[in-house]
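User: Please fill in residues for this 59-position structure.
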């Protein structure tokens, strides 16, 4: 198994959401599925989320 750093992006009605996770997998396809599964597990605990970084620009 190889370590993969996976970045997933979801375009939502009011913005975009990026999820970055490091997973162990046998292929890039398996790494994407593993990252999606980790994200779904985190969705169960949204009350524990804290944003730790931001980038603010004038649009």
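Assistant: Residues filled in for all 59 positions:
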């Amino acid at each position: 198994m190889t370590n993969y750093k996976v970045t997933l992006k979801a375009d939502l009605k009011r913005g975009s959401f990026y999820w970055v996770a490091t997973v162990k997998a046998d292929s890039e396809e398996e790494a994407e599925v593993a990252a999606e599964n980790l994200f779904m597990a985190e969705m169960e605990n949204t009350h524990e989320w804290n944003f730790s970084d931001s980038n603010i620009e004038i649009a």
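For context: The CA atoms of residues 17 and 26 lie 26 Å apart.
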